[in-house]
Amino acid sequence: MTKDPKRFTEDFMAYVKAKNPGEAEFHQAVLEVVETLSEFLVKNPRYVEAKILERMVEPERVIQFRVPWTDDKGNIHINRGYRVEMNSAIGPYKGGLRFHPTINLNIFKFLAFEQVLKNSLTSLPMGGGKGGSDFDPKGKTDSEVMRFCQSFATELARHIGPDTDIPAGDIGVGGREIGFMFGQYKRLRNEFTGVFTGKGIGWGGSLIRPEATGYGTVYFAEEMLKTKKDSINGKTVTISGSGNVAQFAVEKVLDLGGKPVTLSDSGGTIYDPDGIDREKLEYVKMLKNYYRGRIYEYADKYNVQYFENERPWSVKCDVALPCATQNEISGSQAETLLKNGCFVVAEGANMPSTYEAEHKFLNAGILYAPGKAANAGGVAVSGLEMSQNSMRMSWTREEVDEKLKCIMENIHSMCVEHGKGSNGVVNYVKGANIAGFVKVADAMLAQGLV
Ligand SMILES: NC(=O)C1=CN([C@@H]2O[C@H](COP(=O)(O)OP(=O)(O)OC[C@H]3O[C@@H](n4cnc5c(N)ncnc54)[C@H](OP(=O)(O)O)[C@@H]3O)[C@@H](O)[C@H]2O)C=CC1
Ligand SMILES: O=C(O)CCC(=O)C(=O)O
């Protein structure tokens, strides 16, 4: 075994690329982890000898299936469904479902791999998984979405369960879709259990679950700022996306006295220099969650600039919260952010920074938090929803929010513990990867060669 961390990373990546050809996002997610773990691993050969990392990049199970459904005109459509059950060393598989036309197995493997370490960071007993479909909910009627979800859940039902695998939402999957899938599962199994999270409040959901990812990301940014005796108060904040995570990131930035100035969708970005206030946020929630409209409609309504096909990263800010999708900040956009004075980046989305962007942030020594740490609040409250379901009780909004805050503070402390360099700068990527890895790896060692 080599004692040279750089060589270790190169050898391991050659192995991963040979076994998983053409899976660019999966390679990127693994590289980010191995690069920051290699020094730790060569000093702790028991993990290397037991091939823990080789086992962690191999899903325990990959399920792929056909999803046939009919549209409102009676036309037949065939989509593809997936569930990647990545790792169950510390608990049942847990992670969201994504419905988006661009997905493929590579995307779900990267998301599931990230999810394993993220779930470990929450300190709750959850393994990692991810899944979804190439179905595009955009432009579909409620009844078409329902028929698709029922067909998807009919096949998925045989693979999931409240103690086996507990899916939730992600891009394109919100309360409406979880409702349709939960309803179908209940009908097939004749049981009312906490098999999905993100359920409605009246039927087993947890208060604060919709808010949790966005709120948690801002709590994490606030924790990072505290290390500099600073806060969100008075900061200009750029946010990408306009879905679940982005909306509640805006809400928490407002609660803490910051000024959110951008939102986006796949069509472009709106820039509101006066700030997206609570009234405007309510408009965005109605536009996106009820009317399922486009973000340019905000620009028309409030007479602000709309940058078609552009992302928010050229707008001057103190804090950037990417909350849309993977690889949405390129290396040159990261440079622009830094040049404009941005000194905090907290990732609400999963892997929104390209490899180049991430390294620009790390080299600049700014407060930069990777998604697996900063956006862990969502799955953490999913874990709390599972606990409430098992106990058949509900905690209040204040109780759940307090637990969420505590979990985010705890993740921040773990990142500092494992990521603080001799110069005092915290590498949150390294900290999150080591802290997340050790718990899963120790459980795998204890459970033998499985
Ligand atoms: N929901 C959750 O609890 C959690 C979500 N995340 C991550 O947060 C991110 C956002 O998820 P969420 O808010 O739930 O999803 P939503 O579907 O609610 O919103 C997604 C937003 O991102 C935009 N978007 C999606 N794909 C692209 C793309 N390829 N290019 C540009 N914009 C895009 C969408 O625009 P459009 O409508 O035009 O597609 C939309 O505004 C994802 O990375 C997800 O994995 C992480 C942890 C938990
Ligand atoms: O709540 C969950 O189970 C999963 C959330 C999710 O998909 C994520 O953390 O990326």
Short descriptors:
450 residues, alpha/beta, Rossmann fold, 3 domains, 5-stranded mixed β-sheet, 13 strands, binds NADPH dihydro-nicotinamide-adenine-dinucleotide phosphate
Structural Rg: 21 Å
Question: Which strand-content bin applies to the residues?
Answer: 5-15%
Order of helices and strands: HHHHEEEHEHEHHEHEEEHHEEHEHEHHHH
CATH topology of the largest domain: Rossmann fold
CATH architecture of the largest domain: 3-Layer(aba) Sandwich
User: What's the pLDDT, averaged over the residues?
Assistant: 98
Identify the bound ligands: NADPH dihydro-nicotinamide-adenine-dinucleotide phosphate, 2-oxoglutaric acid
User: If helices are DSSP runs of H or I spanning 4 or more residues, what is the number of helices?
Assistant: 17
CATH superfamily heading of the largest domain: NAD(P)-binding Rossmann-like Domain
